[in-house]
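ugh ok so i messed up the first submission bc i forgot one of the chains. this is the corrected input, ALL of the components this time, i swear. 1336 residues overall. if the numbers dont match what u have on ur side tell me asap before i send this to the collaborators (the ones from the other lab, u know who)
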Amino acid sequence: MKSEKRFSSAMCAFQNTSDRYVTGGYKEPITMKEMINSTKSIPDLEGVELVEGWNVTNDNLEEIKDLLAEANLKTSMIIPELFTTKKWAKGSLSSNDPKIREDAKQVIRNAVDMAKKLDCDMIDIWLGQDGWDYCFTQDYIKAWDRIVEGLTEVADYDKSVKIAIEYKIKEPRVNMHVGTVGKVLLLLQEVNRENFGAVLDLGHALAAYENCAQSIALLKRFGDKLFHVHFNDNYRLWDDDLMACSVHTIEYIELLYWLEKTNYNGWYSLDVFPYREDGVKVANESFEWIKALIGVVKKMGMSKIEEVIAMDDATEAMALIRKALFSTSNGGLL
Amino acid sequence: MKSEKRFSSAMCAFQNTSDRYVTGGYKEPITMKEMINSTKSIPDLEGVELVEGWNVTNDNLEEIKDLLAEANLKTSMIIPELFTTKKWAKGSLSSNDPKIREDAKQVIRNAVDMAKKLDCDMIDIWLGQDGWDYCFTQDYIKAWDRIVEGLTEVADYDKSVKIAIEYKIKEPRVNMHVGTVGKVLLLLQEVNRENFGAVLDLGHALAAYENCAQSIALLKRFGDKLFHVHFNDNYRLWDDDLMACSVHTIEYIELLYWLEKTNYNGWYSLDVFPYREDGVKVANESFEWIKALIGVVKKMGMSKIEEVIAMDDATEAMALIRKALFSTSNGGLL
Amino acid sequence: MKSEKRFSSAMCAFQNTSDRYVTGGYKEPITMKEMINSTKSIPDLEGVELVEGWNVTNDNLEEIKDLLAEANLKTSMIIPELFTTKKWAKGSLSSNDPKIREDAKQVIRNAVDMAKKLDCDMIDIWLGQDGWDYCFTQDYIKAWDRIVEGLTEVADYDKSVKIAIEYKIKEPRVNMHVGTVGKVLLLLQEVNRENFGAVLDLGHALAAYENCAQSIALLKRFGDKLFHVHFNDNYRLWDDDLMACSVHTIEYIELLYWLEKTNYNGWYSLDVFPYREDGVKVANESFEWIKALIGVVKKMGMSKIEEVIAMDDATEAMALIRKALFSTSNGGLL
Amino acid sequence: MKSEKRFSSAMCAFQNTSDRYVTGGYKEPITMKEMINSTKSIPDLEGVELVEGWNVTNDNLEEIKDLLAEANLKTSMIIPELFTTKKWAKGSLSSNDPKIREDAKQVIRNAVDMAKKLDCDMIDIWLGQDGWDYCFTQDYIKAWDRIVEGLTEVADYDKSVKIAIEYKIKEPRVNMHVGTVGKVLLLLQEVNRENFGAVLDLGHALAAYENCAQSIALLKRFGDKLFHVHFNDNYRLWDDDLMACSVHTIEYIELLYWLEKTNYNGWYSLDVFPYREDGVKVANESFEWIKALIGVVKKMGMSKIEEVIAMDDATEAMALIRKALFSTSNGGLL
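and heres the new structure output, hopefully the right one now
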């Protein structure tokens, strides 16, 4: 087992997050400088994801770069802004309007350039507005064609930067085109570029009734395409973006094992929305939980786990987890 | 069957609605004057619901009153602002902070006063922020005690105004205290005031895996407590706040029957969030659908429906709906 | 904290369970004698729940009593057979047919008698067939009236036996009348007998998007009505009846705390369907997990938990759980 | 629009269906002869699907063939028995046991032979037992490899028979390997045989939070792979297998349009479980609804629909449906 993970977080963990009711946000407005400064008390944090438009623009890029350097933070990923302005309300790459599609490609290319300027090797394309809310509003085939076409076109813009597609089944659209692990893999196979892969957002997988471990396994199997992982948690019906490990302990242990088994060596990056909590505390607590559960995997033992999986026996599996989780320290309690 | 319904809408149908990504809204900013003017092209609209704080304040109340009069609109309901400012982030009536609880009661009493000034006989208490996102953050008993205590205290403030509690299972909190029809009825029984009842938001019921018709029936059975209905639709897992009747046709027909059967005579009021649609068109289309489906109920016939229900035979039920829905006009098509 | 729990299990844990595809069951047929014998290797097991008709009948009651005595097992609960024969296909207590309703009451009274003969002080009424699958097949008000009427009638049959109502939102019916904690409490308040209370099946609560801890709290608050708890787990959308604690660790810790806090002193009883697993192993592993998680609650400390809850701070809550769960034994792992 | 559809049904519509509680079934036992006879009062029925093992075996094949001929019924599809006996409890093609995998392949090949003997050109492989219920019981990669390997091996057995894979997200396993439209397409692309395609069960798609119309569109786009459609309905969280069109009217209209648009010319086949209803009535009512909704599509008009879709305007879409659905016959009602 690799002893070192690289921990990162999207900036939304530290922002003044709002929802559709409290439109002004649940906290006070905060500047990028303040946010970056606040992360200094997160010892595990090595990188941050930046949403272009929200967190970084062509105008403030140099300033952000300096602030990050000063805080000793890398840029783990750049997320082109295809979902935070009304312009994309009815889609970006899949829009019926060719001008909008062109703009989307330009935003993506610009994000690639930004990434390089920030010494970052990956961008995350999340087609959050590309979907539908009502029947009879989409030509599903044309929409898919356009998504493939757009991605193929940006694919070769700069092969030194990885492009990772993030899937999500719903929200902000009631349905999204690239909604599941199966659909993202279809897309990757069709675009078929080495620098094209996927972001697995654990909460998105849970909300699609996926088992995260299987999603990791399939992304491995179909071309080693897991480029990045977003950590968070939810109650399975919605992308609640809660603190990592705050709901699904057993499934978290299993998915951490599969990250090891498949030799995932990308970032362990938070994507959480702590509307009412202190973002720094949420990040620290999330990292502590992730590390503790990696510890449980270690105690279970990679080869012992493989043995137990081969038995296909749920009681053996639960016993193995239990013994690692409670070990000696709890043994005498009852 | 009553031949006349009174149609209303919450103002969110006409607002510049935002979500957690497009925080500035999917449309252009719009004034109350513009919104009220826009409703003039909704022939069925007789009333509007106003969220105190969002739509009306003590300061602009007279102006709003004049605008509504000029547009020939009644105020169907006032909704005290207990969910749109960061102040209520960790609850209003159930807050751990006695000062916040006191403020919430004051907001409610003020909303009662506003209602009277606007010749409106009902306020809607939606405890949208009273809930929890994580385990071990709530004393569920104390929270319930406080909600009962707060409501009981405001109950007698002015018996000439009805107070209707709106339940919802989730959003903005991951879990809300007053989440289901059963829980709202427990609350109504404990507070036990004649002017206390419930708002049924159809989408909230669907998202709680309720059958809206049963919810209407239970609200009737336990003291005739259905004071107001919010019309909208969703895909069952989230409060998507779509146009009325855009997803659940059969269930809509059944619930419209139950509104008739239980002699509901309150407003048929929209609560929709047309992020990407024209709000006026959404309202018009919603009313057209509701009227058309009431027409289907009428064609089925109240006594014939009762007969079929008594048979407890799904094929008879589906045949009755089918014959009323497709009638002669489709009969020869295939 | 009480140091001793009483552990029990429904017999389905040891039966040859089937589903709608493998109608003959996933295991070999097994007799009650064999099942009871098999439980001898479950050291924690003190009691068993018996479904009348499935597990015990008037005819074999004496034989079963002897077998249980020989195995040193108590009868924790008798479950009248209102859901395993085609007779109840369209309801038992809520049936449109007065003869069926009468038969259901007789089955309940007989179960009360059986319970006494088996030195058992509680029966569990689960109205599994009382619901609906399609719109326009139920008069929801009449159905509720009949359920109340039937329960009231059996309530006074023998006040020395507790009658506990088990709620469930769906399956085998697509919708069930007594579906949620709110609805069961409405029922208990209306029947209003001291010997009437509720069974909380944790999986049923999860499948209704309830937080089990809140359900426990409300059952306490409204008259101390939690008579019995069924332990199992699921993935939140269906009553999967998996091994206890196999999915929801954090929520399990919280609910175990609430059982302590509310002084629940009934059985900790399994209701699991190990289609493909060894039932004895499933029971043993379930009990080991429950005990281990009670150990975690103990380590967290009742008063410390209360303190943290009062803070309404999710990071404090998660830190408290984490420190108790991983304690010294994992501290040095990473 | 094609004026003629071919209607079929799986035999489960007419069987004595059971669930995990009423293990003996909700109706009386019934023979194949009786079932086939009963279908004579379903005028639209032209074909039946037969589950090998349940409905037809090598032993009774000739007898069944004669019965079908006498009833003037074609065999629309043969479904190899990979999910109704305990043998497959832990998987068929993905089993850890090579002997089981070999047996599964043999069952499939035998089903191909049976199909030909019954003048049927398609079999349906539903890997209902190939999945998992608990974490740490599956090597997800190996399982997928084995499924691909098994299917590839049977693919070339007889190219004159189509092999259609049916996907489902859950039940009888809590999770199934081939769970979504995306995953089935990945499988089809890898096996890559002309006679390999998919069965779309509408209820399975709904239970996976898919939009059926999009699923149809994607199956078209990726190689014209929609071989067969199962009609039924549900409340979105489970495969309730209700009568077709009994819940989702609008979505049904959209999917029927997409079947036309993509030139689907396979069977319109029921897969319903009428536990408590008369199966013949359920089939008749289902076909009447499907025909009536096809009539609505016809009234909307294929080119007008295309125009409206291109507008991406939900109010236009709902107006178009409304006008076709209620047309003149309801227009004057309110």
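quick check: The CA atoms of residues 9 and 56 of chain A lie 15 Å apart. that seems consistent at least. Residues 279-300 of chain A form the longest helix (22 residues).
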